[in-house]
Specification:
By secondary structure, this protein is an alpha+beta fold. The protein has four helices and four strands; from the N terminus they run H-H-E-H-H-E-E-E. The protein has a four-stranded antiparallel sheet with strand order 1-4-2-3. A hairpin with a 2-residue loop joins strand 2 and strand 3. The radius of gyration is 13 Å and the shape is globular. The N terminus is likely disordered.
Length: 103
């Protein structure tokens, strides 16, 4: 349990921890922005795209950190999270999400 709490506390969107984002978190944020910059304005990416770019064969373990990175970028006004083509509130989104540039 302690290990899990430490992992979650590494991201600024964790209310209890309030710790600055770690190295992997920053790499995921950068990866999301780079992937979106390389695509058309209206294109979206999956959090797994960023996780794969950062984690290579260990990308599955980066899925939730990638989703958290996307939520931080939403808070910063950099991206939007969508489901079924519609913008959704990242704090309540359940299931598969897509990430796109702010439109």
């Amino acid at each position: 349990m302690t290990h899990r709490r430490r992992e979650v506390a590494q991201t600024p969107d964790d209310k209890a921890g309030g710790q600055p984002a770690g190295k992997i978190d920053k790499q995921l944020e950068a990866s999301i922005l780079e992937l979106l910059a390389a695509r058309a304005e209206t294109s979206t990416i999956c959090p797994s795209d960023a996780a794969r770019a950062v984690g290579d064969e260990n990308w599955r373990g980066l899925m939730e950190p990638a989703r958290r990175a996307a939520r931080r970028l939403v808070d910063a006004g950099e991206v939007q999270i969508t489901q079924g083509g519609s913008v959704v509130d990242p704090s309540t989104a359940k299931g598969p999400i897509r990430i796109r540039k702010v439109q």
